[in-house]
Design goal:
The chain contains one helix and eight strands; from the N terminus they run H-E-E-E-E-E-E-E-E. It is mainly beta.
Length: about 120
């Protein structure tokens, strides 16, 4: 009974305090293909904001630092040209729980054949 009461008090306290959302302060787009990728654009359709890099050399990256902001779970669309072929992929942060009390970097990795990896570091 006492354990259940303490558990209820703890849960109520956590709910009252709220959970701080995960924050990010940098976007890194890495090119892990054997080709230069061109016209790389990350667009957030909901806000209309766009980040772009004219080209990213093979084995290189394009990064953009910005003031710390909370992840909002908006969909993003990444498009690019690789070896004359255009690609477009949708990315989603979903409901990412806070994994750190410090801002992280959003990392998108362009892989050969139009594949992507994305995560937080």
């Amino acid at each position: 009974m006492v354990t259940r009461f303490l558990l209820c008090i703890t849960c109520a306290a956590l709910a009252a305090c709220g959970v701080k959302p995960q924050t990010v302060n940098e976007l890194i787009i890495q090119n892990r293909t054997s080709e230069v990728v061109y016209e790389v654009k990350l667009k957030i359709p909901e806000t209309g904001k766009v980040v772009s890099c004219s080209s990213i050399l093979s084995g290189s990256e394009c990064s953009l630092g910005f003031p710390e902001r909370a992840l909002q779970g908006n969909l993003a669309n990444l498009s690019w040209q690789e070896d004359g072929v255009g690609y477009s992929r949708t990315l989603s942060a979903g409901n990412i729980a806070a994994v750190s009390d410090r801002p992280l970097h959003a990392v998108v990795v362009i892989l050969p054949g139009g594949h992507l990896q994305a995560g937080l570091e």
